[in-house]
């Protein structure tokens, strides 16, 4: 569905403060871009603006001719710095819910769990998972209900080295299939990626 992402002359203001202005980016299918910059520069706000959760002060977000409402409703995933998981649910209840909500299936949720080695943890309540396990559970929704554009906020924190490498393989596979990745990072991504610095 989404074959490119175009950000034109973007400006975002939060809490009365202009975070950035005049920002531009062209991202095509098969490409990744790493958003860099200090804390508070606006990396998270940019991801949320692309997802339609933060209003623009100026500029335009376009999705290769796909109208924004359709693209945001069925063409992208946003995995924030906070995992967005309900602590009282089991890992399986959370993964199943997000898979079905995003037009996946129970079967695709099970495959995603196997891919990220979550199967032995599915009966546990989310609150009992470690930070790295919760992050893997949040990332599993990307696989359980595939969508072309991944918006990722610090996706590798707090994964250990093995799962950083594993998720790098999954990101590379997503790009090979024509996906797009826009990720806010402090550490380099484990895949080739263009860099866009957001400076205050």
Written description of the protein model:
The protein has helices at 43-50, 68-74, 91-101, 106-115, 131-144, 161-176; strands at residues 4-14, 17-28, 32-36, 58-62, 76-79, 149-153, 180-184, 194-197. It is α/β, with parallel strands linked by helices and 200 residues long. The chain folds into 2 domains: 1-75 and 147-200, P-loop containing nucleotide triphosphate hydrolases (Rossmann fold, 3-Layer(aba) Sandwich); 85-146, no CATH class. The longest helix has 16 residues, at 161-176. The N and C termini lie far apart (34 Å). The relative contact order is 0.22.
Quick gist of this model?
The protein is an alpha/beta fold and about 200 residues long.
Average predicted local confidence, pLDDT: 95
Strand order of the largest sheet: 5-6-7-3-8
Largest sheet features:
5 strands, parallel
- Give the CATH architecture of the largest domain: 3-Layer(aba) Sandwich
In the predicted model, the low-confidence regions spanning at least 5 consecutive residues are none
CATH fold title of the largest domain: Rossmann fold
**Total count of domains:** 2
% residues in beta strands: 25-35%
End-to-end C-alpha gap: 34 Å
User: Total number of β-strand segments?
Assistant: 8
Overall morphology: globular
Distinct helical segment count: 6
Full CATH superfamily name of the largest domain: P-loop containing nucleotide triphosphate hydrolases
What are the defining features of this structure?
Rossmann fold, 6 helices, 200 residues, 3-stranded antiparallel sheet, alpha/beta, globular, single chain, 5-stranded parallel sheet
